[in-house]
Amino acid sequence: MDLKNKVALVTGAGSGIGEAVALLFAQHGARLVLTDVDMAGCERVANAVKAAGAEAITVRNDVSVATECEAAVAAALKAFGRLDVAVNNAGIGGPPALTGDYPLDGWHQVVNVNLNGVFYGMRYQIPAMLKGGGGSIINIASILGQVGFATASAYVAAKHGVVGLSKNAAMEYAAQGIRVNSVGPAFIRTPLLTKHLTEEQLTGIAAMHPIARLGKPEEVAELVVWLASDKASFVTGSYYAVDGGYLAR
């Protein structure tokens, strides 16, 4: 899965799945544009990427702000002259609440980051890729882009939207050499999960998966690298679960 000299932009690269994707991309030779609102984490990952022998720049990017997504793509073009791969990974969980009680500010925040942020990213990534003759976009959705989960209506709605948006863009740009796919991780041991839950709660969530454990960020990254590579040249408009059997129940 050679990504040598391909320029890849990864949002939410400062921790979790984004960090794992960045490190694996580096191992496969990509030149990286790493973005996050957590610049300390982003710089830490960039240093690890450089230590592995790959090139990397960092850009602060609140994906819920369209102009910052535009600036991230502009930074990629300025630094490397092209954009070949984009991984729209940045996301938040949001407050837990039943739909009839869901806080309006929480709803808007989750949708702005998790859905609008993916659209804003693609809005500027696609024109850049067209100028370069094509590319691959991987949008990180969730198993909750396929099923519901009580007290997570905003997250579920946003991730369903990411899956639909990915399919639509895939149809629109397939003939122009841009592939668009979405990935649906189940519950992955990342700061997004662990900083909000106790180990007892995490054990209970792990039991919801037939594999009986939480996923690892590196396991998601392996699929993302494949989708980014030319090995997946006939793959577009698809949704891939990385879920330890969660959706098979």
User: Which CATH architecture would you pick?
Assistant: 3-Layer(aba) Sandwich
CATH topology: Rossmann fold
Number of domains: 1
Assembly annotation:
single chain
Structure description:
The protein is of the alpha/beta class. The protein has a single domain (7-241), classed as NAD(P)-binding Rossmann-like Domain (Rossmann fold). Helices cover 46% and strands 15% of the residues. The protein contains eight helices and seven strands. It has a seven-stranded parallel sheet, with helices on both faces. Strand 4 (85-88), helix 4 (104-132) and strand 5 (135-140) form a beta-alpha-beta unit. Helix 4 (104-132) packs parallel to helix 5 (153-173). The longest helix has 29 residues, at 104-132. The chain starts with 6 loop residues before the first strand and ends in a 7-residue tail after the last strand. The model has no long low-confidence stretch (mean pLDDT 97).
Could you outline the blueprint of secondary structure elements for this entry?
Elements: E1 7-11, H1 16-27, E2 31-36, H2 39-51, E3 56-60, H3 66-80, E4 85-88, H4 104-132, E5 135-140, H5 153-173, E6 178-185, H6 191-194, H7 199-206, H8 217-228, E7 239-242
Parallel strand pairs: 1-2, 1-4, 2-3, 4-5, 5-6, 6-7
Search tags:
alpha/beta; Rossmann fold; 8 helices; about 45% helix
In a few lines, what is going on in this structure?
The chain has helices at 16-27, 39-51, 66-80, 104-132, 153-173, 191-194, 199-206, 217-228, and strands at residues 7-11, 31-36, 56-60, 85-88, 135-140, 178-185, 239-242. The chain is an alpha/beta fold and 249 residues long.
